[in-house]
Design a protein that fits this description.
Among the domains are: 198 residues, no CATH class; 145 residues, no CATH class. Strand 11 and strand 12 form a beta hairpin. The protein is of the alpha+beta class. It has a 23-stranded mixed β-sheet that branches. 28% of the residues lie in helices and 44% in strands. The chain is built from 14 helices and 25 strands.
Length: 600
């Protein structure tokens, strides 16, 4: 029995010695083979542009482990210049350096038997990546004559490559964009905390697998705080964190922003015009059901659901600077979506509690007035420019709820005909109960006019618009409406009492209620031709303003009649002249500043 154990132990010892000897032999001989194969693969797969280098390579065939130290992928600039001369150079060139790359448990059996490379895991640390993008006009039209795919080139070295998992920590990313002459156009750099990749399979079938992106089942990326100054020099954009997961088909952006980097006065001085200054912040932006494959291969944006949650949009205008007129025909939101340079299809977009604010510096009184739409929420559906989808349902809808001046509840439902050549759309909605003096926040600073009292009971509108005209009905129920105007400075230095002016406006020009004192209910019937220089949102407001004026009893005929009476009153000629001037454009002036919010 003792001899048996001696034989067993001897055989085990011999096997251990043979395994250790084999591992030592393979580590000495396979190292050269792997180095040779790797160099050939990199060179052939990149058509000679890239070379690979490293400080150390450790191989343990017994355990199936390979470790590279200070591994680098370099682009040969001489080869790239030659490719440029031959008009074969790609627009993108990469330089990559890795502090370490650890390959664990690669299958020597698969490698020997069928030239397959199967690896359990790859861990990469300290990545420094430089991406240079240089435009070459010939790439816009040139036809790639190399019909050999990446998989076909890889198949010359390996029959397949399978990696169960890849983890990448600390990635430094640097991007530079240049024009054809080499001049730098844009650049940015950033660091990613973590990239996790699972189930990579590269073979003849994996590229066609609809569940794989870049041959993987899952890519999870976490990017920490990011900030980028835009090339125009006016704004910066960024976020606190971003998470991307191809398995969940989701992207989550936290604390995103688009903000000015210079003071307001500097912005308008440099612009030289009243071009709106924007400040946008969102607590979170989430996209679910993203088709990453379509995004990467065709640059199409397709997602099942988009969520914008808790943020603000602030717009600032300065009327002390001129507004450059532009033709706005064909510039409605749905028309712009149809002209996007890429295909987009978002099933639904939800907006949750976003505050919208417009502030303007007036040119006359040098004061800032503000109008707000608080806690704006709602849904947009069928947001797409895909004509195959629109053939089944041609309408994009926006169902929104907000609070005007943090008071009256505003509801509006838009229907946009995406296929209409005339830009057809409809909007139906209204405003609930609120106090009219809430609008003094914009009226008093900009126009030096106040609403002394007024109860808005209900506003309802049902409108239909095109590029050229808006028609529809407008209902406005209110009571106790009174305005307060300031004293008027006359040319002789004397003042006309604001009380007198306010009296004529309140008693003669406007109805203090609807139904009026004679119990006549005034309905607005809007037929408003669009000024081509008006933006889509300004045209909306102008159309609604027509309804407001009609329901308040200010028709054009009545306004002209009142003007005539005022001018014929000899005993108060001077005063009524001022009153007439105030009365003639009163409501237009009240809402003149609000139009600027619609402009943007």
């Amino acid at each position: 029995m003792k001899k048996v154990w001696i034989w067993v132990l001897s055989i085990v010892a011999l096997l251990v010695v043979l395994l250790l000897s084999g591992a030592w032999y393979l580590s000495k001989n396979w190292k050269g083979l792997i180095e040779e194969k790797l160099a050939v693969f990199v060179k052939e797969s990149s058509q000679g542009l890239y070379t690979i280098s490293y400080d150390a390579l450790d191989i343990n065939p017994a355990l199936g482990n390979v470790t590279f130290r200070n591994l680098a992928l370099h682009a040969d600039t001489a080869v790239y210049r030659l490719l440029e001369e031959q008009q074969k150079a790609k627009n993108d060139v990469f330089e990559v350096e890795l502090k370490s790359l650890r390959i664990k448990r690669f299958s020597l059996f698969d490698l020997l038997k069928n030239k397959g490379l199967h690896v359990a895991s790859i861990a990469i640390d300290g990545v420094d990546m430089h991406w240079m993008q240089k435009h070459h006009a010939y790439n816009d039209t040139i036809v790639d004559t190399n019909k050999e795919s990446f998989e076909e080139r890889l198949h010359k070295v390996f029959s397949f490559v399978k990696v169960d998992a890849i983890s990448i920590d600390t990635v430094a990313f640097n991007f530079v964009k240049r024009d054809e002459s080499g001049k730098e156009l844009n650049k940015f750099s950033h660091k990613a905390n973590s990239i996790q990749v699972q189930d990579i399979m590269i073979d003849s079938l994996s590229k066609a697998d609809p569940d794989r992106i870049f041959y993987t089942k899952k890519i999870a990326v976490t990017i920490p705080e990011f900030k980028h100054i835009l090339s125009n020099g006016f704004y910066k954009a960024g976020f606190k964190s971003l998470r991307l997961n191809t398995e969940d088909k989701s992207v989550v952006l936290i604390k995103g922003y688009y903000q000015p980097i210079i003071p307001r006065h500097a912005y308008f001085n440099q612009k030289g015009e009243n071009k709106a200054l924007m400040n946008i912040e969102m607590d979170s932006l989430r996209l679910d059901g993203i088709d990453f494959k379509s995004l990467l291969e065709k640059q199409d944006l397709t997602a099942r659901h988009v969520m914008l949650s808790q943020g603000h949009v602030q717009v600032y205008g300065d009327k002390r600077y001129p507004k450059k007129p532009e033709n706005q025909i064909g510039q409605a939101p749905h028309q712009k979506i149809m002209r996007l340079p890429f295909k987009m299809h978002l099933d639904s977009v939800r907006v949750d509690r976003v505050d919208v604010q417009y502030t303007e510096m007036g040119d006359r009184y040098q004061r800032e007035g503000t109008i707000t739409f608080d806690r704006t929420s709602g849904y947009l559906t069928n947001v797409t420019n895909d004509t195959t989808v629109l053939a089944k349902n041609k309408y994009m809808r926006a169902d929104l709820l907000s609070h005007v001046m943090n008071s009256g509840e505003l509801k509006v439902l838009f229907n946009f005909d995406m296929l209409s050549k005339a830009g057809d759309y409809t909007y139906v909605g209204g405003v609930g109960r609120m106090r009219a003096p809430a609008f003094n926040r914009i009226l008093q600073p900009l126009l030096n006019v106040e609403i002394a009292s007024g109860n808005i009971k209900r506003i309802h509108f049902d409108m239909k618009g095109t590029d050229r005209r808006t028609t529809g009905s407008f209902l406005f129920d209110y009571d106790d409406l009174k305005v307060k105007l300031p004293d008027i400075e006359r040319n002789n230095g004397k003042k006309v009492s604001g009380k007198i002016v306010s009296f004529f406006v309140n008693q003669i020009l406007i109805n203090d209620s609807n139904p009026d004192a004679n119990e006549i209910y005034h309905k607005g019937r809007v037929d408003y031709p669009r000024d081509p220089s008006f933006t889509f949102f300004k045209n909306l407001w102008k159309s609604l303003l027509e309804g407001i004026k009609q329901t308040a009893g200010i028709s054009k005929e009545r306004e002209q009649k009142l003007m005539g009476k005022a001018e014929s009153a000899k005993n108060i000629a001077a005063e009524t002249k001022e009153v007439a001037g105030k009365a003639k454009g009163f409501f237009n002036k009240i809402f003149k500043k609000k139009d600027k919010a619609a402009d943007e």
